[in-house]
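HUMAN:
Could you generate one sequence with tokenized structure?
ASSISTANT:
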Amino acid sequence: MKKMKLKVTLNAPVVLGIVGISFIATLLNFITGGAAGRLLFMNYRSSLLSPLTWIRAFTHIFGHADFSHLFGNMSYLLLIGPMLEEKYGSKTLAFAVTVTAFATGLVNFVFFPSTALCGASGVVFAFILLSSFTDFKEGEIPLTFILVTVFFIGQQIVEGILIRDNVSNLSHIIGGIVGGFLGYGLNVRTGSRI
């Protein structure tokens, strides 16, 4: 009987890259008592002339308040992301992550000047909405998209109004909107790639 060799494959480089960078960012934040997060991995109102303001507009998705926050977001990314990366390709998924990071960072910067934003939950919600388009056919709106929108985005609206905590419900909503638009736009086109 022939022995079967198993090997570990790098099946989703964008998703794995986000997980790796996020782990390092959260570890650095822990080691530095929050200084690394404030410097590089949190989005907040600061001078538009500072290059770090523009860098943080994208890198805030890698910073997390603590390891529990990190593990929660990374679990969702690892569950949903590889399927999306296989369907749309690494370049397209990286574009979706970049657009989501900038959109959530911009909204936080403009509308919440005294709030620091960190974490990949906006990207998680973009992935959730984007995943509901995986079996899309032109001229149709998937029922899964409607239900995911109602459940996930509806929950964020209700919690944003009724619950006062450190969760950025608006980032979740913005991420979901970005994922929904990208999912629709990518699947209306014949190539499904940017």
